[in-house]
Amino acid sequence: MSGALPDNRLRPEPEMKHVILVAGSVHGRAVIERVQPLLTWLGKSIRFTTLELGAERYLRTGETLTDADLNLIRSSDALLIASPPVRGNVKTIPVGLLEHEIVFGLRHQLGLASNLRLFHGVGARQDLDVAVVREISEGLYFDPGTTTNPGTPQMTATTTSVTSQEAVERCLTFAFQLAAARRCQLVVAHKTAVLVAPGRIWTDTAIRLSADFPWVRLSFESIDTCCGELVVAPEKYDVIVTDNVFGDILADVAAAVTRAGDYTASVEFPDESGPCLFEPIHGNLAAPDPDRYLGMVAAIAAMANQVGLASISRELEARVRVQAAAMVEGRPIDDESLMEEIEPRKEPLQ
Question: Whole-model pTM?
């Protein structure tokens, strides 16, 4: 798979690894049930521990993300989430509470800093291969904001966005490294003509880091232009890097263009050592349809690579692509071939 995760595939397969498995919602439980045969045989190489996070636990206990939860996750090799542990349709939970305390809480407490989504086209778009890297440790999402003069014509909402040199450099370094392992093209997408101060940090830092990656072709685009060009000429893109909010939108555009929304994984990498977070991109879990679970298999494949199960990761990725092509053609997923056990193989270091 071209330009996948920072590659561990030439390392020998490790001993038993420990992965925390979170359903996140009723739909997440249904998805886990659909991939249970896969998880069962993976259990020969991975010890799975289930952890309940999300609306149901909050309604029952009032807990969101506890110290015990975090200690368990920190002791693991990876965190695998089937569905976002958020409010969903539960109207009795305040808007944004679970997003800020669980989703953003995990990012803050685990030091998760860079998000990677790899979009590979299928069917008529099978030539497309676009990577979106997104800074996820700061920005508008982390401030729920304040409101003054509520209920009056003068009601005003204020939200603060923080852009730091440290976070931007960390994310850009990740993006440069990824581009260097792929087709050596990196686009930095922002809105520098309007968001002058944060835009300057992104631009200046990218130019400075480019000296360490002279073989990577660096360019800059306005985020709105980038979204439009991604629709019109997606084949010209290799790796695109941007901030938290812009990246959230850009990834959805890439998913739609490549038709990859139903079979793409999202991976969040820590700034230092610690477990990565793996999940299907949220779009393919928006509808309560457990038949649309290829994104979960893609997340499992990405997780398998990260914990050292290289041959299993490659085979699962190949299977996901075959089934994704079938979905595009209107054919059902072949559960039997998708879930069939894969024997891990040792691979020599090179």
Answer: 0.90
Question: Per mean pLDDT, which of 11-20, 26-35, 208-217 is the most reliable?
Answer: 208-217
pLDDT reading at 4 higher than 70:
no
Q: Which CATH architecture has domain 8-112+264-342?
A: 3-Layer(aba) Sandwich (3.40)
Highest mean pLDDT among 26-30, 145-149, 281-285: 145-149
Please give the average per-residue pLDDT across 178-185, as a whole number.
98
Q: Are 133 and 180 in contact (CB under 8 A)?
A: no
| Structural fold of domain 123-143+162-258 | Protein-Tyrosine Phosphatase; Chain A (3.90.190)
* C-alpha closest to that of 27 among 78, 86, 72: 86
Q: What is the CA radius of gyration of the chain?
A: 20
- What pLDDT was estimated at residue 346? 61
Burial of 210 (0-12, 13-18, 19+ CB in 10 A): middle
3 contacts: CB under 8 Å, gap ≥ 6:
118, 129, 131, 178, 179, 181, 182, 183, 238, 239
Q: Write out the H or E segment, with its range, that includes residue 158.
A: strand 156-158
- For the beta sheet containing 17-22, the strands, ordered from the edge strand earlier in sequence to the opposite edge, are 46-50, 17-22, 78-81, 276-280, 265-270, 112-120, 129-135, 239-242, 185-190, 217-222
Residue 301 CB partners (closer than 8 Å, separation 6+) = 265, 312, 313, 316, 317, 320
Mean pLDDT value of segment 262-268: 92
pLDDT exceeds cutoff 90 at 80: yes
Rounded-to-integer distance, Cα 57 and Cα 73, Å:
17
- Per DSSP, 116 falls in state E
Domain boundaries, the chain: 8-112+264-342, 123-143+162-258
Whether the per-residue pLDDT at 135 is higher than 60: the answer is: yes
> For helices 294-306 and 310-328, what crossing angle results, to 10°?
160
| Whether 261 contacts 283, CB under 8 Å | yes
User: Confidence class of residue 343 from pLDDT cuts 50, 70 and 90?
Assistant: confident
Number of helical (H) and strand (E) elements in the chain, helices listed first: 13, 12
